[in-house]
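Aim 2, interim progress: modelling of the nicotinamide-adenine-dinucleotide-bound target.
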Amino acid sequence: MEINKIGVIGAGTMGNGIAQVCAAAGKQVVMVDVSADAVARGLKTLAGSLDRLVKKEKISAADKDATLARIQGSTAYADLADVDLVIEAATENESLKLRILKDIEAVVRPDAIIASNTSSISITRLAAALQHPARAIGMHFFNPVPLMALVELISGLQTAESTIEASRAFALAVGKTPVAVKNSPGFVVNRLLCPMINEAIFVYQEGLASAADIDEAMKLGCNHPIGPLALADMIGLDTMLSVMEVFYQGFNDSKYRPAPLLREMVDAGYLGRKSGQGFYSYS
Ligand code: NAD
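Predicted structure of the complex, ligand included:
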């Protein structure tokens, strides 16, 4: 099955990025959010992102116009009736996503693929909300979507091989590199990245080295573009804590326990960049 028309649910950070890469690759896109305001904000961000590419001479002004012309903003799920694939990128909340997936299935064709961009919710549990769960899959894009090459394709227990294959072809067609992974907390990237950051917080709380030296060590010793503590500040310490809690509970394994200092900093309101204070100060 070839995927030519895509529905994107949510016009936020991830949704408008996903809409942009699909449309830039020549696909028709319907981007749905709850209010006309939210749709307009998403379209404005997307146009701004294309403007920057024009300025850097990565695309022409005509490419930008053609990309925008392929995107229809909407507040009505009924506009998804003829799409081949829906990618749900709404707020990370399980009961909300379960409801959205049911609403999508009620309007799309029986053979349409239904994907979720969730970072932390079980694809198997989300798929179970559908009458035809074999068509459900996780498509985990990375932020910022236009710049990040990877898409993790997560199969739940119910996902059909044909769903994985069509999703893989789609990811390649929009210029991404797919990696297939079975459903499990954190998939591959966050499963490896977040415990490494958590361990850096243990190293820091034990007083083994300063924050700047821990980051310098990982930058120069592992060729990481950014140190783990600076990255924690960027991701948000509240997000980091909730990911570690999902691992700790999901695997029921003490090796994933959040560093006590991480919890303490979240309790203090030190959330990283967004609050102005984390392992570093951002005033
Ligand atoms: P966001 O808050 O920027 O955007 C979410 C959008 O969903 C909002 O515009 C909201 O109005 C909309 N929405 C809420 N309910 C809706 C509904 N019923 N129908 C249509 N739209 C609805 O969030 P985000 O950062 O774009 O995250 C979206 C998803 O992507 C989450 O599942 C998140 O876990 C995942 N994700 C986020 C990142 C990241 O770095 N931000 C990376 C990978 C995956």
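The mean pLDDT is 97. The first strand starts at residue 5 and ends at 9.
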